Amino acid sequence: xxxxxxxxxxxxxxxxxxxxxxxxxxxxxxxxxxxxxxxxxxxxxxxxxxxxxxxxxxxxxxxxxxxxxxxxxxxxxxxxxxxxxxxxxxxxxxxxxxxxxxxxxxxxxxxxxxxxxxxxxxxxxxxxxxxxxxxxxxxxxxxxxxxxxxxxxxxxxxxxxxxxxxxxxxxxxxxxxxxxxxxxxxxxxxxxxxxxxxxxxxxxxxxxxxxxxxxxxxxxxxxxxxxxxxxxxxxxxxxxxxxxxxxxxxxxxxxxxxxxxxxxxxxxx
Amino acid sequence: xxxxxxxxxxxxxxxxxxxxxxxxxxxxxxxxxxxxxxxxxxxxxxxxxxxxxxxxxxxxxxxxxxxxxxxxxxxxxxxxxxxxxxxxxxxxxxxxxxxxxxxxxxxxxxxxxxxxxxxxxxxxxxxxxxxxxxxxxxxxxxxxxxxxxxxxxxxxxxxxxxxxxxxxxxxxxxxxxxxxxxxxxxxxxxxxxxxxxxxxxxxxxxxxxxxxxxxxxxxxxxxxxxxxxxxxxxxxxxxxxxxxxxxxxxxxxxxxxxxxxxxxxxxxx
Amino acid sequence: xxxxxxxxxxxxxxxxxxxxxxxxxxxxxxxxxxxxxxxxxxxxxxxxxxxxxxxxxxxxxxxxxxxxxxxxxxxxxxxxxxxxxxxxxxxxxxxxxxxxxxxxxxxxxxxxxxxxxxxxxxxxxxxxxxxxxxxxxxxxxxxxxxxxxxxxxxxxxxxxxxxxxxxxxxxxxxxxxxxxxxxxxxxxxxxxxxxxxxxxxxxxxxxxxxxxxxxxxxxxxxxxxxxxxxxxxxxxxxxxxxxxxxxxxxxxxxxxxxxxxxxxxxxxx
Lengths: 269, 269, 269
Prior knowledge:
The structure is a homotrimer.
Chain A: E1 4-9, H1 17-28, E2 33-38, H2 46-54, E3 64-69, E4 80-85, E5 88-93, H3 99-104, E6 107-112, H4 128-141, E7 165-167, E8 170-178, E9 184-189, H5 190-199, E10 202-206, E11 209-215, E12 226-230, E13 235-240, H6 245-249, E14 256-261
Parallel strand pairs in A: 1-2, 1-3, 3-5, 11-12
Antiparallel strand pairs in A: 4-5, 4-6, 7-8, 8-9, 8-14, 9-13, 10-11, 10-14, 12-13
C-alpha cells in the first residue's frame, strides 16, 4: 500500500482537469494523499515534464507513485505505461516523459496499461489523465501488482536529450531549462566540468558573453554580472544575481554554452 | 464524517487567501484533507467557476464537501448557502455558482447559512470564504447536519447558461470556455449533435471558419486545421493540433458555432 | 507531533522545487500533510512573503509548522532559523521574513539551525529550502525539540516595514501590497483610522485621487469609483468595484495614501 501519489502535468490550474484526476484517485482510494509536483509544464512540452519530474521524484519516500501526464498524443498510438523501479512506480504515457527515469534508475519492469478493470468504465480518447492514468495510480496505491495492469513492454520510449559534448579542449552544451528565477540551466554536469578544473583554469562563455565563476553560491556574485553556479540539480546554471538572467540578457532554451581552457593555461603545470 | 473538502475560488495563488481558508478548515477539523480544484478562476467570473466545478465534482467520492467561492457580491444581500445532494455537499454564495449542480444533480435540500455557531467569532464583510464558508465546510465535515446551519431556501440562484438552440436544419451554440490548451469548449452537447449525425452528414462552422471533424481524438487531426472533437466534458470542442485554437485563430468565449446539414445531404436517404 | 506543515516560497509552480521540498518532508515524516500558502511570492521579495505569511498563519491550528522560504541570500551569511511561539513554529532564513511574527506573537525562542543531523546528508549552497529548511520542518513535526537544532539567537532579523505616520491632522501611509483582485492594501490600521473618525469626518486621498468610503463591504460602492474598505487583514484597502484598482487607476505598491480631517469639520462638535 502507498499513501502518496504525486501529480505532474501540463494541465495548468485554471481548469478542472487536475481536480478531476484527484477526484478519480480519491474515489478509488480515499486514503491517498495527492501531492502536486507541477501542473505548469508548458503545454505539450514532454521534455520539460521529464526534467521537472527528474528534479523532484528522488526526494519522495519509497513506494511513492508518480503520475506524469504531458500527453500531446492522447488517443493516438502511444501506450499508457507503468514503470516500476526499486523505489517507486511511474504512471503516464509512453512518449519519453520517463526518459530520465530510465537513465537514472534501475527499472524492474515496464508494463502497458491494458486491463480495463483498472480504467474508468468509459474511457474518453481525449483525457487519459482522468480515465486511464489516475485510475491506474490509485489501483497501484491499493497494492495491485504491476503485472495485473497489462503485458510487459520491452523498454519505454526515450527522448533525445541534448547531451553536452567534449571536443578537444572545449565542452559544448546548451541551456535546457529556464526556471522561475530566470536561471539558465545547462546540460553540463559537474563531472564533465571537473575534467576542466583538473586540467587548469577554465573559461565559460554563453552565446557571446563571458560568464564569471563558477561560484559556490549566488551570494558570491556581483550584481549585474552573468555568472555560473552548480545549481540544486547538479548541473551548471548561468544566473544573474537577484535578477533573471533570462530576461536581463535575452537568453533562453537552446543557447549554446562553451567551457574552454583559458588561453593562459598553457603555462600551467 | 467526511475527510475531503475541495476548494475552488477566484483568489489566485499569490496572496494568502486560500491558505487562510485551509487554516480555518484545519483549525476546526484537523483530519480534513483540503484538495484544490482551482483558484485561478478569472476574478468575479461566476459562470467560469460554475463550469470548472461542474467538470470536476462528480469524480470525487461520496460525502465529499465542495467549497466554491467566486463571490463578487460578498458582504451584500446574496445568501451563503449549502446545497445537499445525495452524493455531496456544496458550500458557497447563492449567486449561481451552483447552477450546473442544480441542473445535473438531485438536490435534497438547500439551506441558508445563518447560525453564528458555525461561523468565525467575528465575521468580516469582505472575506466570507474565510469567515463563513470555510467554517461551514469544516463543521459539515465533522458531521453537523445541514439543517443546523439555517433555514431551508426554496431554490438557489441560477445563472442564465447560454443554451445551444436547434433551429430547423441548424444548431447554433457558442464557445463557453477556453481551457489551458486554448481548446474552445462550446455548449453543443453530444445528444444535440447526434441528431445531425442521424439525419446525415453535418458541417461545422465556427464564426466564418470551416471546422474539420468531429474526430475521435486530437491525434486524428492535421496540424494547422481547426477541428472538432468531443472533449472530456462531453461537449463539442474546437481545437487546433498541438497549438492553441484560441491564440492561433483569435477566437474566444462567445464565438458562435453552427452545425448544419451539408448541402449535399438532400440526396441521402 | 504535528501533522500540518505549511509552505510559502517564491519558487513558483513551473519547476520541481516545491515538489522536492514536499518529497523531503514526506521522506522524513510520511504522516505530514503539506499545505501550500503560496509559492507565487514575487522572486526575492521578502517583504511580500512576510505579508502573505502574516495573512494566513494565524488561522492554522496550534502546533502547525510554517516553512517560509524567500531566500535571495541562500548560501551567504544569513542564518537558517526556527522561531518558536506559543502556537506554532516558523522555519526559514533569518532575513526578515518573520518580521510580522516578531511584531504580533510572543516568541518563546529563536534558534539557528546548525545541527547537521537534521539536514540533508549533502547540503547545497543554492537550495536550502530542500536541504536545510524542509528537513528541519519535518524533524520538528516528529517532535524533535527546538533546542536540538542549534544555539539560541538573540533575535531574528526584522525588515523596516513602512509604518503609517500620524502628523497633526493627517495620517500618511502607503500601499504595501496589491492583491489578486487589484485591491491596494495600505499600512493604515483600523486603530489609527478610528482616531480620525472619533474626531469627526475624515477625507481619504490616494496619490491625487479622492477616495470614497470607507464602506463596510465592496457591495456598497458604486462601479467606477475608487473607495476604501477595511479588508480582511484589518488594514485600509483601496478598491474599485468588480475591477482592479491597480489596473484601472495605474496605482501600485508605494503609492501614498493620506487621511485628513475634512475642511468642514471645524464646525463640528
